[in-house]
From TrEMBL:
It comes from the Eukaryota. GO terms for cellular component: PAM complex, Tim23 associated import motor. GO terms for biological process: protein folding; protein import into mitochondrial matrix. Probable component of the PAM complex at least composed of a mitochondrial HSP70 protein, GRPEL1 or GRPEL2, TIMM44, TIMM16/PAM16 and TIMM14/DNAJC19. Binds to HSP70, HSC70 and HSJ1B. PANTHER family: GRPE PROTEIN (PTHR21237), GRPE PROTEIN HOMOLOG 1, MITOCHONDRIAL (PTHR21237:SF25). HAMAP family: GrpE. Residues 50-88 form a coiled coil. This is GrpE protein homolog 1, mitochondrial. Keywords: Chaperone, Coiled coil, Mitochondrion, Transit peptide. GO terms for molecular function: adenyl-nucleotide exchange factor activity; protein homodimerization activity; protein-folding chaperone binding; unfolded protein binding. InterPro entries: GrpE. Its main location: mitochondrion. It is found in: Mitochondrion matrix.
Length: 212
């Protein structure tokens, strides 16, 4: 039994000390080293790939932010343009409501002028009860003139009779300049034809003579 144990120990020692095994050991160590180095290279490659992906994502983020900024600016400009268009359209509608009767009013002004001249041309001393027909005609003209002025006022049409006032080129049209005693220079001395304003806008300037 003891001899058998000795032989087994010798065989084990021979196996461990065999040249083939000794020659194979460096190879095994080299293979292990290569495997370790290969694993490190793979990790570095993965890190490089991650860095490149992050760089691409950052660039894409910057592009998206620029596009978002550009679209936001365009949206704001579009909103401002729409609001301006709405305001202009609303103003045009309001002006159309206010001044849509402008042409009709101009035509009626001629009628008002005729009534004015007709009443002024009648001698007041002849408008008596002794001349009933003339009196009735005159009273009818005066009533008609008063009624048409009420209609004008109702629709925003106001008469301009600037005698004695300061000359205003936006409301008056000077036909002549003349020295007038008791009148300050630049004031309206004579009104030859009254003017009218429609909702604050001069529809027809008053024809006047200005003192100098």
């Amino acid at each position: 039994m003891a001899s058998w144990c000795v032989r087994a120990v010798r065989q084990s020692y021979s196996l461990v000390a065999s040249p083939a095994l000794l020659r194979a050991s460096p190879r095994l160590l080299c293979t292990a080293t290569q495997q370790k180095n290969g694993h490190g290279s793979e990790e570095e490659a993965e890190k490089t790939e991650i860095s490149e992906a992050e760089k691409v994502l950052v660039e894409q983020k910057s592009q998206v932010e620029e596009q978002l900024k550009d679209m936001t600016e365009k949206y704001k400009r579009a909103l401002a343009d729409t609001e301006n268009l709405r305001t202009r359209s609303q103003r045009m509608i309001e002006d159309a409501k206010l001044y849509g009767i402008q042409g009709f009013c101009k035509d009626l002004l001629e009628v008002a002028d005729i009534l004015e001249k007709a009443t002024e041309s009648v001698p007041k001393e002849e408008v008596t009860s002794q001349n009933p027909h003339l009196k009735d005609l005159y009273d009818g003209l005066v009533m008609t003139k008063g009624q048409i002025q009420k209609v004008f006022t109702k629709h925003g049409l106001v008469k301009l009779n600037p005698e004695g006032l300061k000359f205003d080129p936006y409301e008056h049209e000077a036909l002549f300049h003349t020295p007038v005693e008791g009148k300050e220079p630049g004031t309206v001395a004579l009104v030859t034809k009254v003017g009218y304003k429609l909702h604050g806008r001069t529809l027809r300037p008053a024809l006047v003579g200005v003192a100098k």
